[in-house]
Amino acid sequence: MRPPHISDRNSGCKPSTASVRRRRDRGSFRQRIKALKTSGKKPKALLWSSPTYVTGLMLPIAALANLAREHEMLSICDAAHLLGMVEFDFNALNLDYLVTSGSKWQAGANGTGILLMRRGQAAPSMVYKVTGGDQDVASALSKISSSKLPTFQALANSCDVYSEIGRSKISGYTLSLAAYFRKLVASQWGSDRIYGFSETSELSSGLLTFNPFTNPIDVQNEGKAREVVARLRSEHGYTARVVRFQRDSSSAVEWPLRVSTPLWLSPPDLDAFVKAAQAVISTKATSQVF
Question: Which of 4-13, 110-119, 145-154, 187-196 is predicted least confidently?
């Protein structure tokens, strides 16, 4: 269950979404806030992901934080993929809350993360249960004890290593890899197969989502997409992820592939991945035909 819906169930807060479908939609958050106020609602918080985990779009964090402050709302950024990908200054972002993963790009242990809060803000409550499954967040947090200290020390050590290398240097390398991979994908499958509009440098991240199928309509077949990912791992040793994408409520759901370009990869790795993906798509599998 997504956090806004958990909040709805536990505190009565009603989530309201704003869609960003193209570059000129950057004002959609502002328009949505104004529409809510006009209808008599009192929006309390602006919550967004940056970069978005589906397409890798790097929504402008500081600009959205300033928008929230302009309307006397809390600013909350889900930046799970930010730490270790790009350099950022939390104080300069003007955010109230930012949460990021310690394992996705920062090379820390699984289950670690960092919550940054503006001085004076209250720590968020973690007392809800996620319904529809056996994931009990409150119970999981209560089990964190001194036995977990080595895990968090390992995260701190990895942060020190990144700082020694230079986070600006890492950020530049990560984004240059992403730009290189974007050109590879465009040359092999066409730029129209790439999701989002992250060719704009300020909106770029180290995540790229694309449709690799010979027949573009096959991206609507979840089974085929997951078979591609499984074969990339089992036959070639590469990891990619299937993400769920829907252009609007009336469009068919699509299942493109998402690929990351972290610090430990190089251009030859990306060249080899593209060749592997082409091989998987062009050959028959035991359970699917592409």
Answer: 4-13
8 Å CB contact between 278 and 210: no
C-beta atoms surrounding 281 within 10 Å: 18
Give the tens place of pLDDT for each residue, 62-107: 999 999 999 888 999 999 999 999 998 888 888 999 999 999 999 9
Name beta bridge partners: 84: none
Contact 22, 203 (CB under 8 A): no
Q: Residue 2 half-sphere exposure, CB side, CA atoms within 13 Å?
A: 10
- Which two tokens mark 237? 């040793």
CATH code of the region 3-165: 3.40.640.10
Domain locations along the chain: 3-165, 167-282
* Cα–Cα distance, 14 to 7 (Å, whole number): 8
Return d(Cα 257, Cα 247) in angstroms, integer.
16
The pTM score is 0.81
Provide the CATH topology of domain 167-282: Aspartate Aminotransferase, domain 1 (3.90.1150)
- Measured CA to CA, the distance from residue 53 to residue 260 in angstroms comes to 10
Answer yes or no: are the C-beta atoms of 216 and 182 closer than 8 Å.
no
What is Dmax (Cα atoms) for the chain?
A: 59
